[in-house]
């Protein structure tokens, strides 16, 4: 069963964005995405300090099947990256919604979050 | 599921990487019924195959012994690669690539006109490949009876009929293993029994990474009708001396700097088909097959290049990544092997 986390927003391209208490936004990919990709073997992340524009390329996830671009759901400056992914990319498959996060971003405009997909909308897209 | 030359086949049953490790460490089973099985029989069979195959069919003298060979066109390019089993002087069994089935059959039929031999495609047979260090013991445990004595009598790269099963010690993984050809109904039963005995089903994804680690070519990726066996790391399967076969003349005149080599990624990132290969700033070729190697824990590739006397890099998303040049295979019998060029 594909899981959906209901405490966050989504992009049609299967990334999720979750607002933390400190005002940063964590980004990762959905369970649906990791399932479709198959075993993740390498993740190319942005660098801390990179300025990203919403819906632009922020990295690449390589699975046994293919290389896929990762898009950032919102604009801002990268404040942290998940360094664990370098040694253990498979945690993206095992825990897509928590340990398998990709990067954190300090949003330049947190109202962008409300323009993203709700979990209900995202679920509909996946089930189509 | 994916459409593979008209066959619905699973890329993976579960985790592709775990499937891969299962074959390297214990045993897995592949449903490779899509491969085409062709019988050639009649007095002129050996004469025909001597003309059609780049490897020397007359080397096969022990019944059941198999030979891997390219089949070439008149310009020396690869029509297909295949396994041929010698059953008797007037009887051979061939296994050819599914994508080339119609083309191969047409080629055989054209060449065998006015010759005392015939062709029969065995569409009734399925093929199960049981591969891995435990493949023989598991299969012996399950099959029992006459099948076991047949199995035990076989040496590497040899097959034999036992009732309606053709059992062979061959494979496409670089591990010990079997390929069993049998009618569809018993094939289903054997599949179920194997799974019940803990043999893991393996999809096309792991089949590809296993054969790549084993340094085995995939038709359509690593060779096709635009390249010769010499440009495809298949020189060892071509016997030119004192022989005339289709393509032999072209091969004798053939001069090409292009060769198929192995690459191992020195850095992070995955090598994939068609990525360009550079030496300094010169484009010297491209990757033909590339993937993450679960056994090595890094990416590996086969690449066709026209130069090897310098440091090679592969361009991935605009960045040049350093790779090591090696002679395939990358893995044999579960262990990494590293033969520098």
From TrEMBL, chain A:
The protein's role, per its UniProt record: The glycine cleavage system catalyzes the degradation of glycine. The H protein shuttles the methylamine group of glycine from the P protein to the T protein.
Family matches, as Gene3D superfamilies: 2.40.50.100
UniProt keyword Repressor, yes or no: no
Residues found modified as N6-lipoyllysine: 65
Protein's recorded name: Glycine cleavage system H protein
Cofactor: (R)-lipoate
GO biological process: glycine decarboxylation via glycine cleavage system; protein lipoylation
Listed GO CC annotations: cytosol; glycine cleavage complex
Gene: gcvH
SUPFAM superfamilies xref list: Single hybrid motif
Superkingdom of the source species: Bacteria
Source organism (scientific name): OM182 bacterium
């Amino acid at each position: 069963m594909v899981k959906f986390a209901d405490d966050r927003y989504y992009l049609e391209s299967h990334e999720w964005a979750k607002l933390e208490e400190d005002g940063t936004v964590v980004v990762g990919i959905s369970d649906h995405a990791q399932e479709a990709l198959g075993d993740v073997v390498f993740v190319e992340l942005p660098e801390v300090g990179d300025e990203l524009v919403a819906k632009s390329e922020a990295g690449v996830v390589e699975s046994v099947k293919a290389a896929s671009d990762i898009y950032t759901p919102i604009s801002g400056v990268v404040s942290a990256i998940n360094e664990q992914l370098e040694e253990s990319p498979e945690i993206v498959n095992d825990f897509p919604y928590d340990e398998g996060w990709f990067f954190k971003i300090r949003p330049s405009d947190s109202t962008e979050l409300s323009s993203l997909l709700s979990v209900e909308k995202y679920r509909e897209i996946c089930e189509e | 599921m994916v459409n593979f030359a008209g066959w619905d086949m699973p890329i993976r049953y579960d985790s592709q990487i775990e499937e891969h490790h299962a074959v390297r460490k214990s045993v897995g089973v592949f449903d490779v019924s899509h491969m085409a099985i062709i019988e050639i029989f009649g007095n002129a069979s050996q004469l025909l195959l001597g003309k059609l195959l780049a490897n020397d069919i007359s080397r096969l003298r022990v019944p059941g012994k198999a030979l891997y060979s390219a089949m070439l066109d008149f310009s020396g390019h690869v029509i297909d690669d295949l396994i041929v089993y010698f059953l008797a002087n007037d009887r051979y069994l061939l296994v050819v690539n599914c994508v080339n089935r119609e083309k191969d059959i047409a080629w055989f039929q054209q060449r065998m006109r006015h010759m005392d031999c015939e062709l029969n495609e065995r569409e009734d047979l399925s093929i199960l490949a049981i591969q891995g260090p435990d493949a023989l013991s598991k299969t012996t445990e399950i099959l029992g009876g006459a099948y076991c004595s047949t199995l035990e009598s076989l040496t590497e790269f040899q097959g034999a009929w036992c009732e309606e099963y053709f059992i062979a010690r061959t494979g496409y993984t670089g591990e010990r293993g079997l390929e069993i050809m049998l009618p569809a109904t018993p094939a289903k039963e054997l599949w179920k029994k194997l799974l019940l005995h803990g043999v893991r089903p393996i999809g096309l994804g792991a089949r590809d990474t296993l054969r790549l680690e084993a340094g085995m070519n995939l038709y359509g990726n690593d060779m096709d009708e635009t390249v010769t066996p010499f440009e495809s790391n298949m020189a060892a399967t071509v016997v030119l001396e004192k022989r005339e076969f289709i393509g032999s003349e072209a091969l004798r005149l053939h001069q090409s700097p292009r060769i198929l080599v192995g690459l191992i990624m020195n850095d992070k990132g995955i090598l994939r088909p068609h990525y360009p290969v550079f030496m300094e700033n010169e484009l010297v070729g491209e990757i033909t097959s590339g993937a993450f190697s679960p056994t090595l824990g890094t990416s590996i590739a086969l690449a066709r290049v026209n130069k090897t006397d310098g440091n090679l890099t592969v361009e991935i998303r605009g960045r040049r990544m350093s790779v090591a040049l090696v002679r395939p295979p990358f893995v044999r019998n579960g262990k990494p092997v590293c033969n520098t060029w």
